[in-house]
Amino acid sequence: MRLVRLIPVRKALAKVLVAGFSLAALTSCGTSNISGLGFEKNLTSVNDTSLPLWQWAWIAAGVVGVFTFILIMWPVFRHRRKNDEFPKQTQYHIPTEIAYTLIPFIIVAVLFYFTAKDESKITKVTTVAAAAHNVTVNAIQWSWQFTYNDIGDKATVTGTPAQPPTLVLPQGESVRFKLTASDVVHGFWIPAFMIQMQNLPGVENHLQFTANKIGEYPGRCNILCGRNHSQMLFKVKVVSAADYKTYLSTLKAA
Question: What residue ranges do the domains of the chain occupy?
Fold first, then answer.
């Protein structure tokens, strides 16, 4: 006795194909109208580079997911059991085996290429002399030290777990960061800026970017560094260029 067909095969496949083509159509559009997928657009120069990569990776994953779903559902509906005959068995289909080996390789190769290209752009820094501003970020157990090198004798702001420090940045001006650590490995992470780089003891890492929007953004260490790791917090405050100069003057006077 045949089972009652709850959903007509053609209608079910049509819905799947419509969903697939709708998602695939996104690949022919720019990323300006695509959701930030949890990230605000144009916050920093890093976002301008990493956000499109993030969006296209999700689009590619969606297209692959829909295509895979179609391949799974097609035999479910098309080749479901109709009688007691044993279905024809097929093995060693060389073209199919080549296809499902080659296609994932191409997908991974494309993602790797664009990731490597954008990573090189994000990690590119100028010399200290060429940078508009220079800030040293030193991580300690369990807080942060921000040293502003723009003023005469430098000035360092040191936080504590009880009083997390604030990193003040000028809007629209490039800042070059030197990242160090005094004890163990830490991670300098500003989630909203899509930025993360390790602070390593005895090693200098460098990062450079421009903050585009005035506001306050949370930062934290994202590498397990000890007992009070969860308290290694800081705040990034982006202010106007004039307010930034005033802030540096205040630090120098102090």
Answer: 9-81+91-122, 133-253
- Residue 74: cis peptide before it, omega within 30 degrees of 0: no
Pairing of strands 233-239, 166-170: parallel
What is the spatial distance between Cα 145 and Cα 133, in angstroms, rounded to a whole number? 16
**In the CATH scheme, what is the code of domain 133-253?**
2.60.40.420
* Residue 174 confidence (pLDDT) above 80: yes
Nearest to 175 by CA among 198, 215, 148, 199: 148
**Is 124 in a helix, a strand, or coil?**
coil
Instruction: Give the CA distances from residue 124 to residues 46, 208, 209, in Å, rounded to whole numbers and listed in that order.
Output: 11, 7, 9
pLDDT for res 34? 56
Task: Say what the pLDDT of residue 116 is.
Answer: 92
Task: Yes or no: say if 171 and 240 are a contact pair by the CB < 8 Å rule.
Answer: yes
Query: CA–CA separation, 246 vs 168, rounded Å?
Result: 11
Cα distance between residue 53 and residue 239, in whole Å: 28
CB atoms within 10 A of CB 13: 16
Q: Is the pTM of this model over 0.90?
A: no
Is 222 in a helix, a strand, or coil?
coil
- CA 234, CA 245: separation in Å to the nearest integer? 21
- CA dihedral sign, ordered 25, 31, 34, 37: positive
Nearest to 231 by CA among 201, 197, 186: 186
Query: For 17-44, how does the pLDDT look when each residue is reduced to its tens digit (9 = 90+)?
Result: 455 545 444 444 555 555 566 677 788 8
